[in-house]
Amino acid sequence: MKCAYCGEELRGMFKKDLHGFGAHPEHAFQCFSCQRFVASTDHRLPDGRYQCADCMQKEVKTDKHVEWVETRVKQMLAAHGIDKWPNSLPIRLIQPRYTPGRPATQAHKMGETKVAKSIFSKSYEVNMLNHMHRIVFGGVLAHELLHVWQYERNIYLRSELTEGFCNLGSWIVYKHMATPVSQAMMTILERDPTPVYGDGFRIVKAVYDNLANGSLPDVMSQLKKM
Ligand SMILES: [Zn+2]
Ligand SMILES: [Zn+2]
Ligand SMILES: [Zn+2]
Question: Would the pTM of this model clear 0.90, i.e. be above it?
Answer without folding.
Answer: yes
